[in-house]
Amino acid sequence: MSPKDKQLLQKIRADDKRALEEVYLANQTDFLHFARKQGLLQEDALDLYQDVVIAFYQQVLNGTSSITSSIKSYLMGMGRYKFYERLRQQKRHQPLPQEQVAEVPAEEPLALSLEQEQLKEGFAKLSPSCQEVLRLFYYRGLSLGEIVEQTVYENTNTVKSHKSRCLKRLSKLINN
Prior knowledge:
- By secondary structure, this protein is mainly alpha-helical.
- The chain contains eight helices and no strands.
- The mean pLDDT is 79.
């Protein structure tokens, strides 16, 4: 590990937000490039990076990180792990093939209000991870802790911040 990385870790442990921002900005481009190579959209890649940086920050503050390589390598490794974990989660939650879905007689759909239509369209434009978190919280009524148990998120703070970003994004989509 370089002396600069050691110094940044010490500053982060002392809760220096500028040091965290420096780590965030210094590694963002390379991380997003890696994520795009994996097939993630820019928005999903940014969500993943933010989740990784939050987890990194919490590990450094709690003293649970065992960083022996560079900070960049550590973040990339965490990102790779979280990316593959999300893929595994998505495979667990894949819908049944169409031939296995029972035929239900179609009823005449209810007319949606203008606000409901805007919400539906905005929701469809959100990333899959945002849709999942919002569905689990608002539709299924799960607590943040229950969402942590059913997803790849490490703790309730990460879910809470992701949910907040998703709501802001949804609000922008609806109001534009």
